[in-house]
């Protein structure tokens, strides 16, 4: 089963699955709904178009944590003005925004149809709409598209052997292992409610199970940052 690899690197990323009202959470890795939404933006799939979105949701996803990132929290304030002369103003609302700072993830998507994965790969190189890492303002610092990203190997093997994508800081030491997560086929692992079941206009999400493991640090060139 072929695999498509994506590079998610940016100063800020957020992958919320349980956000409600004034609190916007983030998971520790890209969510399935977030990745599917990013691919839909690249391919120009409208938020009401389920027919074209559904094949993306059927891909099996894995994530490798090349740099886990640092959990951070920001907040915003807003006032609701309800009169033209500003005489009636509601109390200031404070909303929190959780995000991951300086994270780098290698995301893999596996499916039976290599041609379909190549179509996605081409769309990422020339996206119809701007791409973001979970929120519109969180733009990637490096291209999500990579050369030779469609691999004719299973998902686990593709994630295990691809060179580390995160630039090594001078003060960092190379880890011996990297954390990876995969969708479970037997219902074991952690329950996540981020499997799209409808168009993004309807916003219905179902359950999927994800298990994590450690893999040896991949071989290959690792660039060093000043």
Fold blueprint:
Layout: E1 3-13, E2 23-24, H1 32-43, H2 50-57, E3 60-67, E4 70-78, E5 93-110, H3 114-125, E6 150-151, H4 155-161, E7 177-183, E8 190-196, E9 205-216
Parallel strand pairs: 2-5
Antiparallel strand pairs: 1-5, 1-6, 3-5, 3-7, 4-5, 7-9, 8-9
Sum this structure up briefly:
The chain is α+β, with helices and mostly antiparallel strands. It contains four helices and nine strands; from the N terminus they run E-E-H-H-E-E-E-H-E-H-E-E-E.
Shape: globular
Mean pLDDT: 89
What structural class results from the helix and strand content? alpha+beta
Number of helices: 4
> Any idea what the radius of gyration is?
19 Å
Straight-line N-to-C gap: 39 Å
Count of the separate structural domains: 1
Question: Could you please describe the fold and organization of this structure?
Answer:
The chain is of the alpha+beta class and 226 residues long. The protein has a single domain, classed as Alpha-Beta Plaits. The chain is built from 4 helices and 9 strands. It has helices at residues 32-43, 50-57, 114-125, 155-161; strands at 3-13, 23-24, 60-67, 70-78, 93-110, 150-151, 177-183, 190-196, 205-216. Strands 1, 2, 3, 4, 5, 6, 7, 8 and 9 form a 9-stranded mixed beta sheet that branches.
């Amino acid at each position: 089963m072929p695999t498509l690899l994506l590079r998610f690197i940016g100063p800020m990323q957020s992958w919320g699955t349980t956000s409600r009202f004034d609190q916007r959470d983030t998971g520790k890795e890209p969510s399935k709904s977030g990745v599917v939404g990013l691919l839909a933006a690249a391919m120009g799939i409208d938020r009401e178009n389920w027919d074209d979105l559904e094949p993306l949701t059927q891909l099996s996803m894995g994530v490798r944590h090349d740099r886990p990132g640092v959990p951070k929290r920001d907040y915003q304030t807003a006032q609701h003005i309800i009169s033209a002369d500003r005489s009636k103003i509601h109390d200031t609302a404070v909303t929190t925004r959780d995000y991951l700072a300086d994270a780098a993830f290698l995301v893999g998507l596996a499916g039976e149809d290599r041609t379909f994965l190549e179509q996605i790969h081409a769309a990422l190189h020339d996206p119809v709409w701007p791409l973001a890492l979970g929120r519109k303002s969180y733009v990637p610092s490096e291209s999500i598209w990579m050369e030779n990203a469609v691999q004719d190997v299973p998902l686990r093997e593709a994630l295990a052997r691809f060179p580390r994508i995160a630039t090594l800081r001078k003060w960092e030491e190379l880890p011996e292992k990297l954390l990876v997560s995969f969708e479970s086929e037997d219902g074991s692992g952690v329950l996540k409610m981020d499997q799209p079941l409808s168009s993004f206009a309807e916003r219905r999400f179902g359950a999927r199970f994800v298990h994590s493991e450690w893999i040896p640090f991949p071989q290959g060139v690792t660039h060093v940052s000043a």
